[in-house]
From TrEMBL:
Cellular localization per UniProt: Secreted, Extracellular space, Extracellular matrix
Listed transmembrane segments: none
Main location per the UniProt record: secreted
Protein's UniProt name: HPLN1 protein
Family named by the database record: Belongs to the HAPLN family.
GO molecular function: hyaluronic acid binding
GO BP term, example: cell adhesion
Organism: Malurus elegans (Red-winged fairywren)
Lineage: Eukaryota, Metazoa, Chordata, Craniata, Vertebrata
Length: 197
């Protein structure tokens, strides 16, 4: 499976624990356990925003120590903020998915699309607009690589790069995030997911 950090359209540190669980479920995933995050860190996950884990703790993985992430002179590792109030405290979340029973693809379409057009285009193709968990699973588990930014179900725009190269993701394999653009902009393609029956 694959662990991925998630924050909603509102920006970082906006989810209490219950909202974090819901956010992962909406992205075809579950809240990651410490062991899953630790394995992801050992595989190179470096993320400077703290996120909820399934045990209710708040942690984040650092492979390259630097000033804003606990300090330059600290050792790499999974940083632990401890346990926080599940109702009142707000962080991002680390989600985990290994669920990949379908076809993830970039829809070839003659024009760039608004968000609503993107949703409709996938439906017309017999699929659904893909979720964030699905793009991470396709990237990590299948080596999916495409340098085209596309809409996803949560209103974010992302693209998966398995082979780093100039103009796409020069330094690392990653799922790149453009952000949460205005849904009326006709600037992007779309990633679709068709579940196997």
């Amino acid at each position: 499976g694959v662990v991925f950090p998630y924050s909603p359209r509102l920006g970082r540190y906006n989810l209490n624990f219950h909202e974090a669980r819901r956010a992962c479920a909406e992205q075809d995933a579950v809240v990651a356990s410490f062991d899953q995050l630790y394995d992801a860190w050992r595989s190179g996950l470096d993320w400077c925003n703290a996120g909820w884990l399934s045990d209710g703790s708040v942690q984040y993985p650092i492979t390259k120590p630097r000033e804003p992430c606990g300090g330059k002179n600290t050792v790499p590792g999974v940083r632990n903020y401890g346990f926080w109030d599940k109702d009142k405290s707000r962080y991002d979340v680390f989600c985990f998915t290994s669920n990949f029973n379908g076809r993830f693809y970039y829809l070839i379409h003659p024009t760039k699309l608004t968000y609503d057009e993107a949703v409709a285009a996938c439906q017309k193709d017999g699929a659904q607009i893909a979720k964030v968990g699905q793009i991470f699973a396709a990237w990590k588990l299948l080596g999916y690589d495409r340098c085209d930014a596309g809409w996803l179900a949560d209103g974010s725009v992302r693209y998966p790069i398995a082979r780093p190269r100039k103009r796409c993701s020069p330094s690392e394999a990653a799922v790149r995030t453009v952000g949460f653009p205005d849904k009326k902009h006709k600037l992007y393609g779309v990633y679709c997911f068709r579940a196997y029956k």
